[in-house]
DNA sequence: CAGTGGTCTAGACCACTTC
DNA sequence: AAGTGGTCTAGACCACTGT
């Protein structure tokens, strides 16, 4: 672990333990540098992390104030999450099951080619999975992935976590994702599998996920039951 | 302007101009350091910005690859936006009007006290505004703000931009915001003012906005017409 | 004014990738 | 082995805040 991440974690811990109470100020960067026996740049980097995560607000010439961390409850999924539902829910000790609605291979249409940077000759998987949490339907996921990147996708994997397979078995490194979130009306599949009523809204999250080498490898639309999922986000002035 | 921000902007410009084509690699950090006559740390900081904004993906021991930024033609993602609707829409040359549905002062209930860190004796504004873009209803905003932070709120201000008033007139500095996004069913006010049908979904964004000194100053729920607004977001592996 | 955080440097070592 | 990005240092200067 890096020094600055280690120190950031330690500072967070102190804040949570009220060793640095909300509303008070952190020791100055120079003091912290002496305490941890590192250069001030390293402390600065650590405090940057705390700032990005909303723990503190530094004001130049003044000090670094400990903020009151919002009490949005954690049962909502952070928007900046792309570990897949399985690991997300594991944190709350909930069972995730996947029911495969559709799984086949096809050539991409032009829209899919554009989104995944593919030629018309590179086949894709077309997957529709229903994700159940504690036996209740949560999400209907429409996923498209290029076959050549993920050679041996099986029913077995689809029943568990695609992401775990990608990262642990194939060693693919995810760089990030683009998402678009909107409210939509339910379609026939939603009615059938999410078990929602015609006037229930659906929260649709479209996302493209990228590998570190820049290759997009997943283009998906997840349709979430409106009473089961919401998304939280923290955004900060640059 | 800082050196690292200046350099980051310049690099972005080169990427957009295809001087560094998508799929190719940036010059190494040492080369860039010589070119701009700065230390490598400064280049590193600049490239960090590009990484956070999804322009490039550095891989240690290898190089920094220029990514394809898909339908991301505009500079800022609406999700990490807290400048208010007025400035957001101004970029697209659209008219924003505000119709005041409700504007009064009251003592906060316990929920409001908690969210805004107030006592029962500190009054708040309760504001409901309908935001119209090019004469069409887009958003119904329910906003709560402490009176003592924003002393002289007038109809005049509410008809334009609250945010512009806060920042330009009062000099309040916004640190960031927490948001929660979900799909909901329309309520009576939505039907009346957003002009939506009973089975139209509504995209609800609840947010708390914080000042740099840590004081929360706005707690709001905006209810967006589902066919008019969606939210985009870029998220990256740490 | 003294103290704070923000930036920047010149150089160093390390982890990693490709050859 | 050579080259890359990631981290870290010791010190410096600056912009800003409080008094």
UniProtKB/TrEMBL annotation, chains A, B:
One GO molecular-function entry: DNA-binding transcription factor activity
Keywords: DNA-binding, Repressor, Transcription, Transcription regulation
CDD domains referenced in this protein's UniProt entry, alphabetically: WHTH_GntR (cd07377)
SMART domains noted in UniProt: HTH_GNTR, UTRA
Residues annotated as domain HTH gntR-type: 1-69
InterPro entries xrefs: Bact_HTH_transcr_reg, Chorismate_lyase_/UTRA_dom_sf, Tscrpt_reg_HTH_GntR, UTRA, WH-like_DNA-bd_sf, WH_DNA-bd_sf
Keyword set includes Electron transport: no
PANTHER family associated with the record: HTH-TYPE TRANSCRIPTIONAL REGULATOR GMUR, MANNOSYL-D-GLYCERATE TRANSPORT/METABOLISM SYSTEM REPRESSOR MNGR-RELATED
Protein name: HTH gntR-type domain-containing protein
Record organism: Lapidilactobacillus concavus DSM 17758
High-level lineage: Bacteria, Bacillati, Bacillota, Bacilli, Lactobacillales
């Amino acid at each position: 672990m890096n020094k600055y991440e280690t120190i950031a974690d330690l500072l967070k811990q102190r804040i949570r333990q009220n060793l640095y109470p909300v509303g008070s100020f952190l020791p100055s960067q120079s003091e912290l540098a002496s305490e941890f026996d590192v250069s001030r740049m390293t402390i600065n980097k650590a405090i940057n992390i705390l700032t990005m995560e909303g723990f503190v607000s530094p004001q130049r010439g003044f000090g670094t104030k400990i903020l009151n961390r919002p009490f949005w409850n954690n049962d909502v999924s952070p928007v900046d999450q792309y570990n897949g539902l399985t690991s997300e829910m594991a944190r709350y000790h909930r069972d995730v099951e996947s029911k495969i609605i559709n799984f086949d291979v096809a050539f991409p249409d032009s829209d899919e080619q554009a989104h995944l940077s593919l030629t018309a000759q590179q086949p894709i998987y077309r997957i529709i999975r229903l994700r159940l949490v504690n036996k209740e339907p949560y999400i209907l996921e429409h996923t498209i992935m290029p076959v050549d990147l993920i050679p041996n996708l099986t029913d077995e994997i689809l029943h568990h976590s695609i992401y775990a397979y990608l990262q642990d078995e194939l060693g693919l490194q995810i760089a990030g994702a683009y998402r678009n979130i909107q409210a939509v009306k339910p379609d026939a599949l939603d009615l059938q599998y999410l078990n929602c009523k015609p006037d229930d809204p659906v929260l649709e999250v479209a996302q493209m996920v990228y590998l570190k080498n820049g290759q997009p490898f997943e283009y998906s639309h997840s349709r979430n039951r409106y009473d089961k999922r919401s998304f939280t986000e923290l955004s900060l002035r640059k």
